[in-house]
Design a protein that fits this description.
Layout lengths: L14 H7 L2 H4 L3 H17 L5 H19 L12 H13 L12 H37 L4 E6 L2 E7 H26 L1 E2 L15 H7 L4 E2 L3 H6 L2 H27 L7 E2 L18 H24 L14 H24 L1 E2 L1 H8 L6 H10 L4 H18 L8 H5 L9 H4 L2 H6 L9 H12 L3
Parallel strand pairs: 3-4
Antiparallel strand pairs: 1-2, 5-6
Helix pairs in contact: 3-4, 3-6, 3-8, 4-5, 6-7, 6-12, 6-19, 7-10, 10-11, 10-12, 11-12, 14-15
Length: 456
């Protein structure tokens, strides 16, 4: 079959070569963006008096018919078409004749494919930002619903200080808030029109790139033709932002795996998001959370694949760049699915407040508050830290907690202790004192929830 670019070739393309170099099975999902770009390009060519209005009208009508055929599954994609651009152009020429051959005036597949990808990624990034917002709203709802639930906070996976469960949940909310900011920043650099720079040097026609940008709602046009056709930074930024996001979701999934285990029993995951064992009848496995955690590796790999692809490429365009779409598409799909199912998983879980309180009772987590109590009584913090450390050792040796000690026992370690130590170390008082900005005091946490809810 004759190629649209085949004028200087004597023979036909080797079938194995054709199969190896074709990207049509991957990039055909860009069809709507390719046609949108071509519609704008044809309109601009007529506006610039490069083709006639009559020819532009025929091209536009033909492209709209092709779009409908693809959407109704009547369009047949063939491996010999190489890519989505050639498939649509070939079909257009078949439908409207030689007029269709004018569409490719003042553009190259090099700038055309970048237009398609930027249009695609613009839409997908906006969608991902919305999905992040949906997950954030779910976290805010869970936090507000459980505002009175107290849990052990951890450092080094050891019980450290009591905190509100809502405060813990909000930690993930604010991670997602940063993720949203990162994607919004990616969107700024994605939203730049590349069309009109040709293969690498610009074009020989009086085109109106700013008009094309206006038609396609791009606020900027690219400024250097060589950079434009070789630029995949915006994809790398998207993959990097996706890697940070999936890392956050993986950490949350890890919490749910731990918290739903019999060792913790902090939450119960809904049966709808768990599976059983093929051999152990009692098992309820947190498979969805584990897979969320596992898919992070795929996203990281996609980022490294594109970084490796680009690291040794000379300017400007090289066919290697065709390999940018598989990691991009895979990341987009995985991130969107993971955001959605994470929201459902969190929304459906049951918080086990009594189990959290039971586990917390054994952790001597009021130790820091007791050290601060002595500071308020006039001792330097390092002295109070040592005294409370000795008190902790005393409790461990006798298998007691701070609440079980008598005042005489406290006073063995410091005469600064008095009867007011007992209300001081009540959990609710330990929480209420954490009023510094960002602290776990209930009034602060609730105020934070209310403040963030106003953004939705």
């Amino acid at each position: 079959m004759k190629k649209l670019w085949g004028g200087r070739f004597k023979g036909s393309t080797n079938k194995q070569c054709e199969d190896y170099t074709a990207s049509i099975q991957v990039d055909k999902r860009l069809y709507a963006y390719d046609i949108a770009g071509s519609l704008a390009h044809a309109t601009m060519l007529a506006r610039s008096h490069i083709i006639s209005l009559r020819d532009a009208s025929k091209i536009v009508a033909g492209l709209k018919v092709i779009l409908k055929e693809i959407e109704t599954k009547k369009f047949v994609f063939e491996q010999s078409d190489e890519d989505i651009h050639m498939a649509i152009e070939k079909k257009l020429i078949a439908k409207i004749g030689p007029v269709g051959e004018k569409l490719h005036t003042a553009r190259s597949r090099n700038d055309q494919v970048l237009l398609d990808v930027r249009l695609f990624l613009r839409d997908e990034t906006e969608d991902i930002i919305q999905r992040i917002s949906q997950l954030q709203k779910i976290l805010l709802t869970v936090a507000e619903k459980n505002i009175k639930v107290v849990m052990p906070g951890y450092t080094h996976m050891q019980q450290a200080q009591p905190i509100l469960f809502s405060h813990y949940v909000l930690a993930y909310y604010f991670m997602l808030k940063r993720d949203k900011e990162r994607f919004a920043q990616c969107l700024v650099r994605t939203n730049v029109l590349p069309l009109g720079v040709g293969a690498l040097a610009g074009v020989n026609y009086p085109i109106k790139r700013e008009f094309t940008a206006k038609l396609l709602k791009f606020p900027k046009v690219s400024e250097n033709s060589v950079d434009t056709v070789s630029d995949r930074d915006f994809i790398i930024e998207f993959l990097a932002a996706s890697s940070v996001l999936i890392m956050h979701l993986s950490r949350l999934a890890e919490e749910l795996v731990l918290w739903s285990s019999s060792e913790f029993e902090f939450v119960e995951l809904a049966d709808a998001f768990c599976t059983g064992s093929s051999i152990m009848p009692q098992k309820k496995n947190p498979d969805v959370a584990e897979l969320i955690r596992g898919k992070s590796g795929k996203i990281y790999g996609n980022l490294m694949a594109l970084l490796t692809l680009l690291k040794g490429l000379p300017l400007s365009y090289n066919r290697d760049l065709q390999e940018d779409k598989e990691p991009l598409f895979a990341t987009v799909d995985t991130v969107k699915d993971t955001l959605s199912i994470t929201g459902e998983l969190v929304k459906s879980m049951k918080v086990q407040a009594k189990n959290m309180a039971h586990k917390m009772a054994k952790g001597l987590m009021e130790a820091t508050d007791i050290a601060d109590y002595l500071v308020l009584k006039g001792l330097p913090f390092r002295q109070s830290h040592f005294i409370v450390g000795s008190l902790v050792k005393y409790c461990l040796e006798r298998q007691k907690d701070f609440h079980a000690l008598k005042l005489t026992e406290y006073r063995r370690f410091s005469p600064k202790f008095s009867q007011d130590i007992f209300p001081f170390i009540k959990i609710e008082n330990c929480l209420n004192r954490k009023k510094s900005t960002g602290g776990t005091a209930p009034q602060k946490v609730l105020a934070s929830i209310k403040k963030e809810q106003k953004d939705f």
